[in-house]
Amino acid sequence: MRPVMRGILLDVAPPLLAYYGLRAAGVSEYVALLTATVLAGIKVSYDAIKARRLDPFAGYLMLNFGLSLAVGLATSDARMLMVGNTLVGGIGAVVFLGSCFIGTPLTQIVAERVRVISGENPDPGEAEFKRRVNVSLSAMWGIGLLLGTLISLAIIFSLSVDVANGVNTVVSLAFTAVLMVVTVVMAKRARAKWDHLREQTSA
After folding, report:
1. pTM of the full structure
2. Contact 78/50 with Cβ under 8 angstroms?
3. How many helices (DSSP H) and strands (DSSP E) are in the chain?
4. Of the four, 4, 44, 89, 188, which is 20 to 30 A from 68 by CA?
């Protein structure tokens, strides 16, 4: 979890600091939000270049940034920019849910980006077991992100832009933290279940 948490911090902190730093310097809400969006995209681009490949997860992040930038260029209204970025973020819910039926579940792709390769051959049936677990996890993340998107939209239209931006960040981090905790719990239970099944098979 440590590299995952570090990655989330690096994703969130620079755009947030840039936004409130520029607002404190008297820059307009629109320019501050657009700058924060660009900074978030730079981080995604750096990760893709560093890995020397654009895996499906990195591709999703790049698409997210590209659409956010397109929204920023299409409107000069700060509130609508936040709405557009929130809706773009909601695409993540669709991607997570879609990955349950097409290709590899997105949570499995994320896990494989940070796990240590042991070099050991997987046990028979392990790949299918992992897929079933990650289908459940991806579905959970998809539903959670969809709910978070709806809550963010309600916040944007209920508060001022500056307040909504900060509250949305807190809500987003809270949702992410809860989803990550549940993910860890489910992963540990799945590992224990797999170890039990393997012991029964070996006996």
Report:
1. 0.70
2. no
3. 7, 0
4. 4
